[in-house]
Amino acid sequence: MKNFKKLILSALITSPLLFNGCTKLDENIYSSLVTDNYYNNKNEVLSAVLRPYTHANAWATPSGQDNWWRPSELSGDQLAWPTKGRHGEDGGKWKRLHYHTWLVDDAPLNNAWSLMYGGMGFCNDPIENLEKRSLSQMGITQVEKDAYIAELKLFRAYHYLKLMDLFGNIPIVTQVGIPAKPETRPRAEVFAFIEKEIKDNIDKAPKLSKSMLGRMTQAGGYAMLVELYLNAEVWTGTARWDDCIAAANKLINNEAGGQNGPMALDPNITDQFKTTNDLSKEVIFAIAYEFRIANSQPSWTGEFFHFQQDRIYGGSRNGNNGIVMVPGNYNKYNNDDLRKSTWLLQGPQVRFDNGQPALASGGNEYSDQQIVFVDEIRRARANSTVSNMSEGEENSGVRFNKYKLGNNVAGNVNGNPVGIDLNYNCTDWNLYRLTWIYFAKAEAIMRKNGGAATAEAVQLINDCKKRAFTETTWPANQYTTASLTLDELLNERGREFVFEGFRRDDLIRFGKFHTASWWDHTPSAPFRQLFPIPLIQRTLNENLAQNPGY
Amino acid sequence: MRTFGGIGGAGDLGDAFRTYEGRNIGEFWGKRFAGFTPEGKWTFFNKNGVAVPNAQINTSPFRDQTDLALIGNAIPKYYLSLGNTFTYKKFDLTIFLRSKLDFDVLNTVALSYGNKFGTQGNLLNSAFTKYAEINDTYMYSDYYLESGSFLKVDEVTLGYTFKFNDKAFRSLRVYAVGQNLALLTGYSGNDPDLIQDTGLGQEINGRSLGIDTRSPYPTTRQFVFGVNVGF
Fold first, then answer.
1. A334: three-class secondary structure by DSSP
2. Which of A264, A286, B10, B33 has its CA 20 to 30 A from that of A140?
3. How far is A483 from chain B, CA to nearest CA, in Å?
């Protein structure tokens, strides 16, 4: 019996040695696609190249996330998300942006950092993978490969451009995971890196065309250069007005392609923002949406729409009754300015389907009453005259109506029947459009000229502004070299680019961001012109230096 | 650090719980109420003990930065129960008592329906009495944290037995059972017995640890009458 036990024991001990034949441990992975099994054909290559664009919807547009767009607009003088009754306190984060009292560990800023660096990583990854594979393996030509890499490097530069815009001094990483803990680079060095990346790759990237819709091209590259040089004085200390003008001319002279024939200003103020704005002639770079085919939809409804906005525009998407115009901005538009009536919602609202009053519901201040957006933020229903970020109510503030979502119910507008919009919910979001380039060039000309307008600068701005007026109203509204001052240019930029994400940069460039007062906002401090490096990031990576002042 | 327990309702109030390494689970981390201004606006204590408005409260995850503090724990320290049967002559009496002690509950009923600011919906009477002072938006803080301790009389049975000198029909007992007869608690929201006391970060049938629900189904009181026949 004892021997039998020993036999069993030795069998147990030796069996792993005896039967140790399993040395080939490669496994076939069926549950997910791993990098080694990918990039096997052009379709797979293309889907990897396009991945950062779907991500950019989250960080570069008003997507309802704490991203690049929110701090860029909500820290400025045009837009705010005031608390409206029981809604919108949201932990005080909107007030901290508005009053410039954000903290080093404000979750929204960390979220922006994470989203943007995440998107940058989505560029690094395919660049690396395309470079280490053979053409035959991927089923693409050398020309295609070079174009993909150039496109990705340009788009990566866009991520760094916007990261630098918010945070200033940031680490530069061009390989996935290497180094593990990158060091902070000074803003001027980041600027130089971005400039070099764009210049090295712009000629290898495709020109803008219909087939490059929603993607980074030479046109996007030149727009980035315009933005870099327009802000160069702030970002590096050295003005680059001539470079700004030269880059702008590439686009104005149609040298970088166009999405719909030669690039040109759209003839009106709606082609850029309607549901078929993929047909705009002035679009340079946009985040594209195609709801019918790809089920991807614009994501700005949450930020801008009222709880029952669907009744007003005849769709089926609503929002959080969030972002409104800071009081005073609405009346910076003249009454005959078509942008005032076309891009903004103010006053009593009517139902799209039958023209009857659009009623609010849901038990807030104006439940079962007509929705009336007003150019003031106060608790009017409680007869309060106090106006600040804490004292809004359901109807407070003039609303966003710049981009149109379209309608998926039949309408009756002023007695006229309106059919369903087949392009409902497909509106693209422009990140650069030619109007912005016109304004940048005009500003560069003026700043070169000691801040005074020249005939050329006036012409550039008038070419854009004219579209917002009729033949009768235009003469009284056009600029002259005398009336187009720098302050007036800032005002006109506000009117033209409201909601487009440029306001913080504009205020900084005009020296107003930390010095000006607006509504209930009082001047802050110079160091607030940069956001802090999020504390969570500095905890994860001790090589990150904090920006001065924080 | 991780957060758990979405508070829900208007105003994006976030999560009620934080779990820090080395600390207990079930801990409420939130603002400390410092009083209302004459206009009825909330103020809270920051980490230096200074009363400030909400937008100046630092909600950092880092404990050396945050103004949020440990304000309670949702997991009861003591569970008690007592079941006893008393007999006296032909009477029998069974009593079952149950109690949970020493835990905190976030009174979301008061938070949402005890605040008249910005709503035309239905409100509790307390919105105009106990909470009449509030003239500000919804906030999560220790102001709405209450002790959930309770003692419940779960079941009482009273019976009486008749005995007969008959071989076929020996006894007859009539009894009455009452269930959920009494609740002794200082908690002002719904029945605290219905609030989850386990399952951090897990919502079960719309109920989650330590957070009262805004749409509870009330507990019922049941009575049963019966007879036992002894053959």
1. coil
2. A286
3. 41
Model ipTM value: 0.86
Cβ atoms of B9 and A87 closer than 8 Å = no
- A348: enclosing H helix or E strand: strand A347-348
Q: Rounded distance, CA A97 to CA B222, Å? A: 55
CB A507 within 8 A of CB A77: yes
Domains of chain A, with CATH numbers?
Answer: 39-205 (1.25.40.390), 207-288+432-515 (1.25.40.10), 291-427 (no CATH)
Measuring CA to CA, how many Å separate A389 from each of A253, A303, A377, A378, B40? 45, 16, 8, 9, 16
Domain count, chain B: 1
- Cα–Cα distance for residue pair B16/A530, rounded to 1 Å: 32
Q: Do A85 and B117 touch (CB under 8 A)?
A: yes
Asked if A207 and A218 touch (Cβ cutoff 8 Å), the reply is yes
pLDDT at A220: 98
pLDDT for position A294 = 86
At residue B231 the predicted structure's pLDDT band, cuts being 50, 70 and 90, is: confident
Interchain CB distance below 8 Å, B118 and A85: yes
CB-based contact, B37 to chain A, within 8 Å: no
Do A390 and B60 count as a contact with CB atoms less than 8 A apart?
Answer: no
Amino acid residing at A65: Q
- Domain with B217, as residue range(s), is 2-230
| Chain B hits for A364, Cβ within 8 Å | 118-120
Inter-chain residue contact A363 with B139, CB threshold 8 Å: no
* B10, B14, B62 ranked by CB distance to A105: nearest: B62
The answer to whether residues A165 and A187 touch, using CB atoms and an 8 Å cutoff, is no
